[in-house]
Write a structure and sequence with these properties.
seven-stranded antiparallel sheet, elongated
Length: 590
């Protein structure tokens, strides 16, 4: 924002000062910005370009302006063009103008000295200045002196520091006028040989300081997710004594697209005149977009190093926002890769996966159908490839077209990752004893913000990436989940919706389970998603193997008891005494 005082209306230069405007002008490209300015009809030095034209500006309707930068001769000059694509190569006389936008050469130095006014009568006064770079000269007779709403004319130059002025407009003032609060300019055309600007813009000395807080200045671009907010503050102060005397705010807020978020501002001011504006931006609606938020000081000089502060707010997914599954207990990365961690019962927390391992399918443990291969090693055979379906499934990712595990180039980050794209590098998994029961917990992470637990009102879906179905998921429905179910919302892949409250997964089968959790759309602009893996160990025997073994063992034990009993009888049996026939007769004697 630029603030200026228009002393006289902006008009183009008359012909007697710039006779070049009476001719057609031809433009010829020198480079990307510089052009020759040719006057083919100029026949004398007095009818073409002047050296005093350097610094003036040429304007044409619906075209870019040209700044005259060099005088060559009365028919040729050079100018710089801002937008050359908007120009044509010929402009007839009367279709182009010259404006003198150069500042009066002595005007900039005026604002360094104090002006003292001592009235003589109601219409005239003595004016004097302190010693400094600016001084009065005889040529300033007739120049205009402007102080606030008062305009006076210099009637007589006494010496380099004293003049007599007469009031032209307003009421004659008295007292000391601070630097920057008075200006001197020429209100009439001077001699043709030494033309002087008819108007000027004076930028006062910087007397304002703008200080944004660390939250605002750290990043020029901020992202707001659904329901997200951002609060920052800007402090402004005045350094020149006595300049802060009104209750008008120093700071003003402007928002490029106010429909994106709700804005709340508050102001505080201390006894020294410093002002702090606190701004809170709250994004509540499902509407992506971009907006600038600018806090500026309209009364500050452009000579100040900073007069405004602008933030770009994007209502979109923050690039650093992620969803992470929290394993329990947490195992340090180095321990996960190379250690042998155990639980309180001295049981291992991790299990090593076999090379080229694939989880069971719905057809059985020995018939894997998944395309995901874990702990891939192209140099070794694939286990459980007994059936054609198993042989046709299973694809390498990181190890594609490699001949050994070393060539796969798996990093430690890949080995620690639970994501499906890194299954080739996954060598170990968390171990659970059958039946595998776990209560998933997630956190939402974002740069420069505290981690947030995934809780109400978030709703998510669960999917087993290897298409296993022998597991159960239970939860405690939240208000948001009930509302979604009542609305008849259907997920594209038919997944079930679950609340984060009381979420529990019971894995009824054995070996590896690989889950993907996804927060459904509407709760965040980000695709919040993460994956986790568990290996269920020590399962019971599959049906009806257990019954067969029990029956076999029972039959075996029963048969053994009978055999032992018969053997015992054969060794310890005593025949009973005879109760008929002769006691002396040998029954086996012929």
């Amino acid at each position: 924002m630029v603030k200026g005082y228009l002393i006289e209306s902006l008009v183009w230069e008359p012909r007697h000062l710039t006779p070049a405007v009476q001719h057609d002008i031809n433009l010829e490209i020198i480079n990307e910005t510089a052009h020759w300015l040719k006057l083919p009809d100029a026949i004398a030095p007095s009818s073409g370009w002047y050296s005093s034209d350097v610094g003036k500006t040429i304007t044409m309707a619906a075209a870019s302006s040209i700044l005259i930068t060099k005088f060559h001769n009365y028919t040729h000059a050079i100018g710089n063009v801002i937008l050359p694509q908007l120009l044509t190569m010929l402009y007839p006389a009367g279709k182009w103008r010259i404006y003198n936008m150069r500042a009066f050469e002595d005007l900039a130095r005026v604002n360094q000295q104090v002006l003292h006014l001592e009235p003589i009568n109601d219409t005239s006064a003595w004016a004097s200045i302190d010693s400094g770079s600016f001084s009065f000269v005889d040529e300033y007779n007739g120049y205009s002196l402007k102080v606030a709403d008062t305009v006076a004319s210099i009637k007589y130059v006494v010496n380099t520091s004293h003049v007599q002025v007469g009031c032209l407009e307003g009421m004659m003032l008295a007292g000391d006028i601070l630097p920057g609060d008075w200006i001197l300019y020429q209100s009439e055309t001077g001699l043709a040989s030494t033309p002087v600007s008819l108007w000027s813009l004076l930028e006062p000395k910087c007397s304002h300081i703008l200080i944004p807080d660390e939250a605002a200045s750290q990043y020029p671009v901020r992202f707001l997710d659904i329901g997200g907010s951002f609060t920052f503050s800007i402090t402004a102060s005045v350094t020149m004594p006595g300049i802060r005397h009104s209750k008008k705010p120093l700071l003003f807020l402007s928002i490029g697209n106010p429909t994106l978020f709700h804005t709340k501002t508050s102001y505080t001011r201390d006894k020294f005149g410093s002002e702090t504006m606190t701004v809170t931006l709250q994004h509540e609606i499902f509407n992506t977009g971009l907006s600038t938020v600018t806090v500026h000081m309209p009364d500050a000089s452009m000579l100040c190093p900073k007069t405004s502060f602008t933030l770009t707010i994007k209502c979109a997914c923050p690039p650093s926002k992620t969803l992470s599954f929290i394993y329990s207990p947490v195992i340090p990365p180095l321990e996960f890769l190379h250690g042998h961690p155990k639980n309180s019962k001295k049981k291992p927390l991790l299990i090593n996966l076999k090379p080229n391992y694939r989880p069971p399918s719905h057809l059985g443990i020995a018939i894997p159908l998944s395309d995901n291969i874990y702990n891939a090693d192209p140099a070794k055979s694939r286990p459980r490839d007994y059936y054609q379906h198993s042989k046709e499934s299973g694809r390498y990712k990181q190890c594609h077209n490699k001949t050994s595990q070393e060539e796969c180039g798996c990093t430690d980050a890949m080995k620690l990752s639970s994501l499906q794209r890194n299954t080739d590098c996954r060598e170990r998994a968390y171990r659970l004893r059958h039946p595998g029961k776990m209560w998933p917990q997630f956190i939402i992470s974002e740069q420069d913000k505290e981690d947030q637990w995934l809780e109400d009102p978030y709703v998510l879906t669960l999917h087993e990436v290897n298409n296993r179905h022998n597991y159960l998921v239970t939860d405690t429905p939240s208000a948001s989940l009930i509302a979604l179910r009542d609305s008849g919302l259907k997920i594209a892949n038919g997944s079930q919706l679950y609340s984060t409250r009381g979420l529990k997964i019971t894995m009824l089968g054995s070996e590896l389970y690989h889950f993907r959790a996804t927060v459904i759309e509407g709760f965040s602009y980000c695709p919040l998603q993460d994956e986790f893996q568990f290996y269920v160990d020590k399962p019971p025997l599959a049906y009806p193997t257990q019954m067969i073994i029990i029956a076999s063992v029972s039959v075996g034990i029963g048969g053994a008891v009978i055999i032992i009993y018969l053997y015992y009888l054969s060794k310890h049996y005593v025949p009973p005494p005879r109760t008929f026939g002769s006691q002396c007769m040998d029954i086996h004697h012929d």
